[in-house]
């Protein structure tokens, strides 16, 4: 059960037991997602006032623990076994019990980056997830030095488990070069991260509801215990509910938990590759609240890095899905620095097999 599902269960329960209250809270319409978002933020902020000390205490202790991001100290810290051969271990595994695609892509990029000079910067990568990753064993990364040119250098990386590839990845690096051609789309206008709640704060808010069903409570607590090494603040918390059909587009602020620091742009690209797979594919489900995913997995992932950025500082992640069909969904993402600079773009196709939502019987 993922976060969206837990929150939907919670919502279904509320609808069943407190229809009037729910209608009031949602402004009587499931279509006005902006209003839902505003109401939820205001309501949540109010409820959170009483939890301020608790939240700030836990945040302080978390920051102390996380002085250095676990993504740097553990997940992306590959062990060298031989020339161009590395081993990576896992930190967070999704409830699907298959390895998180972002982790495999991030680790593959780390392995590729180790074989290129410091004067080269990752500008793009293209990957296929060909088999599910097994969380019970480490992943081996085998790098092939495909080509070294004057400007561009290409590496091919195979991620291997049980003697078979789980991911094939091509990454390209370039020397820094000036260009008279420079343009980008404008960044969407959204509230700053300081005005929004983290996923954990939203969950604390839902947990404080007296009418929350035990099953939903358990699911939410499991999610809180899940130490995802990314901090996320949804711009529109209504997209968690999936009560009514939404445009296939969502935005959130995200950053790596803990400190990474300036300087190592290759590392920031690897962290961004990790983050980029986290909430992308779900965007294709937003128009279909009547369905839930019974099988969802990314099939491929491409990424382009445009400018310098810090993955441990808030970046706006804009996700949209221009197409779905044939049990697949196409999703595209743009990562924006908070000063409006487009930092990275990505694109992914995923398999999406769905089943109709039915009200949970045990609530
Ligand atoms: C706003 C912020 C919100 C944030 C909220 C976020 C909340 C939670 C986030 C959680 C994180 C999510 C994770 C993100 C996504 C990922 O990381 S996915 C992981 C990376 N990708 C993968 O692991 C995919 C790896 N590739 C594969 O596994 C295979 O390539 C494949 C399974 C896709 C290949 O499919 P296929 O060729 O069909 O393989 P088979 O082995 O033959 O079949 C596999 C199973 O599928 C069943 N199946 C096949 N075809 C069909 C069909 N037409 N209809 C129904 N079912 C089919 C087949 O029977 C097999 O089933 P079983 O395994 O036997 O049960």
TrEMBL record:
Subcellular location: Peroxisome matrix
Name the UniProt record assigns to this protein: Acyl-coenzyme A thioesterase 8
Domain Acyl-CoA thioesterase-like N-terminal HotDog residue range list: 91-174
Gene Ontology molecular functions: acetoacetyl-CoA hydrolase activity; acetyl-CoA hydrolase activity; carboxylic ester hydrolase activity; choloyl-CoA hydrolase activity; fatty acyl-CoA hydrolase activity; hydroxymethylglutaryl-CoA hydrolase activity; succinyl-CoA hydrolase activity
Subunit structure: Homodimer.
Domain Acyl-CoA thioesterase-like C-terminal, residue spans: 234-351
The family this protein is said to belong to: Belongs to the C/M/P thioester hydrolase family.
E.C. number(s) listed in UniProt: 3.1.2.1, 3.1.2.11, 3.1.2.2, 3.1.2.27
Catalysed reactions, semicolon-separated: (5Z,8Z,11Z,14Z)-eicosatetraenoyl-CoA + H2O = (5Z,8Z,11Z,14Z)-eicosatetraenoate + CoA + H(+); (9Z)-tetradecenoyl-CoA + H2O = (9Z)-tetradecenoate + CoA + H(+); choloyl-CoA + H2O = cholate + CoA + H(+); 2-methyloctadecanoyl-CoA + H2O = 2-methyloctadecanoate + CoA + H(+)
Xref: Pfam families: 4HBT_3, 4HBT_3C
Protein origin, superkingdom: Eukaryota
Function noted in UniProt: Catalyzes the hydrolysis of acyl-CoAs into free fatty acids and coenzyme A (CoASH), regulating their respective intracellular levels. Displays no strong substrate specificity with respect to the carboxylic acid moiety of Acyl-CoAs. Hydrolyzes medium length (C2 to C20) straight-chain, saturated and unsaturated acyl-CoAS but is inactive towards substrates with longer aliphatic chains. Moreover, it catalyzes the hydrolysis of CoA esters of bile acids, such as choloyl-CoA and chenodeoxycholoyl-CoA and competes with bile acid CoA:amino acid N-acyltransferase (BAAT).
CDD domains: Thioesterase_II_repeat1, Thioesterase_II_repeat2
Gene3D superfamilies: Acyl-CoA thioesterase, double hotdog domain
GO annotation terms (biological process): acyl-CoA metabolic process; fatty acid catabolic process; peroxisome organization
Gene Ontology cellular component list: peroxisomal matrix
Ribonucleoprotein among keywords: no
Predominant subcellular localization, coarse grouping: other
Keywords attached to this entry: Fatty acid metabolism, Hydrolase, Lipid metabolism, Peroxisome, Peroxisome biogenesis, Serine esterase
Keyword Hydrolase: yes
